[in-house]
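TL;DR need structure tokens for one chain.
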Amino acid sequence: MASYKLYSLVLLQLLLVLSAFESGNAHSLKIGFYKRTCPSAETVIKKTTYQYISRAPTLAASLLRMHFHDCFVRGCDGSVLLNSTTNNQAEKAAIPNLSLTGFNVINAAKSAVEKICPGVVSCADILALVARDAVALSQGPVWEVPTGRRDGNVSTALEALTNLPPPFANITQLKLAFAAKGLNVKDLVVLSGGHTIGRSFCAAFTNRLYNFTGRGDTDPTLDPRYAAALRKKCKPNDFTTRVEMDPGSFKTFDEDYYTIVAKRRGLFQSDAALLDDLETKTYVKLQASTHGSTFAKDFAQSMVKMGNIGVLTGKTGEIRKHCALVNL
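>> reply
TL;DR here they are.
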């Protein structure tokens, strides 16, 4: 018992140190950072985002996910946008990021901003703003995005693999992963609500349908009727089919995700895991029973908080000329 308490204390102290490190420069961000240096930046970025999402609404989910994946690896520094080189496999090459789409949206927004304010607006800020606009264009909440991030110049696939919570994570693993980034349990359950938009490849969850414990069984936490419906769409070793994460409204940012999870129809193990913790389960039940009474407000707050993770500000980092390449 004493050794367990000591272990818990050491783990807590480690998480607090990591949390302080991840959010250390967050106070340097501010709303309207480009008010004087590039006053029309946010308008131009929003217009560009609209041009793409109006034609392909499913891009919204990927752009939101891209921002999440950026912030959870080295902080919100645009490292997920960098291309691999001859000597380095970048975050883009990591398995969790192979399904990301929408890099062309970020590049287009960067090009549009560079035309009016060259060398001023960072790719990290553009990604944060595009993610916000993508949610808003999907009928979701709108929030003020503090800006002033600078771009990192390091991106490695291994760090993406070790920092991004996988879809098969249990609630303990999820809580630890979020705590390491300075996010609490409420942030975990709120940001999981981002799964209200988008689709997933079958391969991310077919183990729940066909071989959950290695004995050819189905995940008992998954609603049997929903499991049967999913088996009709996803066969074993299916790596090409995509399934809606929020069936019926996967292009609309709403609270329906929580209703689905409450009915044991969350697509991923990480969705189902929200029912394994009292705090997350209570939140799921609250949003499901009140038509998302606080979800929009909560999501906006947690997104701002996530956007503060490990930011580079001041003279650290750089302002990339092209989002996929570090400056020479």
